[in-house]
Amino acid sequence: MFISKKKLQIFFLIFVASSICYAQFIDNFDKKKIEGWFFFTGDGNATMDFIQKDGYATIVVDGTKDRDNVYWTLIKRDVTDYLDLNKFKDPSFQLRVEAKVRLHNAPRRLNMMVNTQRTTNFHIDLMEFDIPDTTNWHVISMTTKKFDCVPGDTVYVQLCATDFGLGKYYIDLDYYRADIVDVNLAEPDKGELVPYHPPIPDVNTFSNHIDVSQDCLINSVFQNVNFNNWHVNDEDSDKRILTVNDNQWAILRWDFGKYKNAKADGAGLLELTTYSVLKGGDFIGAYGKDFGEEFDKIRVIEIIGGDPTWDQNKVTYNNFMKDNNYSDVFNTQMIYDAELSYEKGGKNFITISKPVLQRLLDGKTKGLLIRPLGAIDASFYASENPGSNDAPKLHFNTIK
Question: N- or C-end of the chain: fewer Cβ atoms within 10 A?
């Protein structure tokens, strides 16, 4: 029987597609109990559980006894027996992990990671994913770039939730799969990918540079006091500054009116200019290196509630919060924790991920909160200083 060249090509494509779709490892979490997975936490005092539901699994994260919200929780599994590690001798073959997830609190980020028993840098094969809602299941996947794995290694796959907040949180997991794929044939990764600690680009690579339109301080002790006149006498003139400490936080808002319906083109940058930074305390001596080095930073957070039209000349803690709980006004998972430039006039550039930037442009996120992480008092130049170019700014690109 004669088979045309065109038909042979079709058969080949069907074969390739079926080989890509076939999962080398998959757990559909449809058994009576979870098997093969282990789970644990690190940093802080969060606890977790991993339980079987009706056709899916649920990760339960309990941060109610934690204090600093710098914890991580993860599930992990050895998938070595399901994979042909000899394929990794060809760099065209990489490991892809995929999961179908649903969250009960959003927006939040999850991360996927793969490693072996030899891994020392656990950030190389790690990708975060922004999950925007609580109503839908979301498929997320990550493909390694240069996975360091040879025959004889043990391959582990993970799903991790970090810094979700000081409450109780639930992550549903419909399935988790792992496959060695040919990157030249595989489809693109799925989900809203958020690279972990991406390099900071030059501000000149952005086409939009906008100063903050409203910036002020709110103080959780003096809840009915407006602090917009916060200042310091510097070289015989007053300088307006934003000082954040344990009880006093900065709130920032931009006017995105001219960007209505705009689509973010990649991540943006928040720019803050240092006036002064005071810090101290041996956190590493008290908590160990991994946990202790998380402190002495600032935490940048999405504002998701509160008064959306606050006036910097009138806003106070109380009229901004409007009797809401902290978790109703601020996303309890930060966007980023950032180390600061200690030099007066030093520039601090902090990544604002593409999904957060889009929420800002759309008005779903109302602005940004700046608060300290650790025993740190940090001051930044505010927007009111005449002739200054040191106001908080956002740098970003939009799709033309």
Answer: N
